[in-house]
């Protein structure tokens, strides 16, 4: 049985896929399986994945119609949960990124002697302004970590974690389909449920920033509408998570995220009256869950975001001349 199952969702990444898969098959630690999910690619990504699957018996290829990143990851999780020979731990790697060649070996050194549910590591190629999450000397519960570092709620990426498979199965963890920022709720659920989580400063993951990628391109109307819907769905899920805990301070940490994602929604709306109306209509039923102090802040911060958008629009107009 493999120690690590590495899930790689694939969609139209023919320029980067070989580098990603090469970083996995050449890991110094060999006791791994690699699950490639071709999510309906229309370029040569599928053919590249098939080529590697033929050469390396550790690779399992799943082909499916395009359903988005969340469903591709869920397909990988489903495969792992049903596979008797699957890994004890699950790792996610995006198909345009790659791992350090000793990543699995260094993770195994920590995990082989202590059955930690979640192990967090870091990015190798950090951008300016990137902040590592606070580390822990020994494993602690996710809830204890949140109480010590409440600003970390809603932060983090799933591809910076090694997760015990039985932990994922026990808590029925999966990704919400068809939304942006799908990691946010998944990471929050991990922190809520994990009894043993270790945050390290190990730098093992190469994150690629692609010009013209969806996350780094000018948002279209459809993209903005998807973002507004996504923030609303994420906020709803944070309410659900808040209701699952009895600790008042922890409940507050989750509920404040309603406010945070409302502001994100306003920021995405800019000065467009239609988008502003959608944001307010989506979130207004959720405001009753907020502590009174936070509800009173809403008009002030909403005006601030509106004013900031107005200033940015004015600056852009000036630069044209």
UniProtKB/TrEMBL annotation:
Gene Ontology MF, one: hexosyltransferase activity
The UniProt record lists the keyword Isomerase: no
Pfam families linked: Glycos_transf_2 (PF00535)
Transcription in keyword set: no
Ranges of residues in domain Glycosyltransferase 2-like: 5-137
Superkingdom assignment: Bacteria
Record's keyword terms, sorted: Glycosyltransferase, Transferase
InterPro entries, A to Z: Glyco_trans_2-like (IPR001173), Nucleotide-diphossugar_trans (IPR029044)
PANTHER family found in the cross-reference section: GLYCOSYLTRANSFERASE, GLYCOSYLTRANSFERASE EPSH-RELATED
Protein name, per record: Putative LPS biosynthesis-related glycosyltransferase
């Amino acid at each position: 049985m493999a120690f690590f199952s590495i899930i790689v969702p694939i969609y139209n990444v023919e320029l980067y896929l070989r580098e990603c898969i090469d970083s996995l098959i050449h890991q110094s630690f060999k006791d791994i399986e690699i699950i490639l999910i071709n999510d309906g690619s229309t370029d040569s990504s599928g053919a590249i994945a098939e080529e590697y699957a033929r050469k390396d018996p550790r690779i399992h290829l799943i082909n499916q119609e395009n359903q988005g990143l969340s469903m591709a990851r869920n397909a990988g999780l489903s495969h792992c949960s049903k596979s008797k020979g699957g890994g004890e731990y699950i790792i996610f790697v995006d198909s345009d990124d790659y791992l350090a060649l000793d990543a699995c070996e260094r993770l195994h050194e920590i995990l082989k002697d202590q059955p930690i549910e979640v192990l967090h590591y870091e990015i190798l190629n950090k951008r300016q302004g990137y902040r590592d999450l606070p580390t822990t000397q020994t494993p602690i519960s996710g809830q204890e970590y949140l109480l010590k570092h409440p600003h970390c709620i809603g932060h983090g990426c799933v591809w910076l974690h090694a997760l015990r498979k039985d932990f994922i199965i026990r808590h029925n963890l999966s990704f919400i389909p068809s939304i942006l920022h799908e990691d946010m709720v998944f990471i929050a659920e991990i922190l809520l449920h994990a009894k043993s989580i270790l945050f390290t400063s190990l730098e093992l993951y190469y994150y690629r920033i692609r010009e013209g990628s969806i996350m780094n391109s000018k948002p279209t109307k459809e993209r903005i509408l998807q973002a507004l819907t996504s923030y609303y769905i994420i906020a709803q899920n944070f309410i659900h998570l808040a209701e699952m805990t009895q600790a008042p301070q922890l409940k507050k940490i989750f509920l404040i995220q309603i406010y945070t994602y409302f502001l994100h929604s306003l920021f995405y709306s800019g000065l467009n009256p239609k988008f502003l109306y959608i944001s307010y209509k989506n979130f207004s039923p959720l405001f009753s869950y907020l502590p009174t102090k936070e509800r009173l802040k809403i008009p002030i911060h909403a005006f601030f975001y509106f004013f900031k958008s107005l200033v940015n629009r004015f600056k852009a107009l000036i630069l044209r001349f």
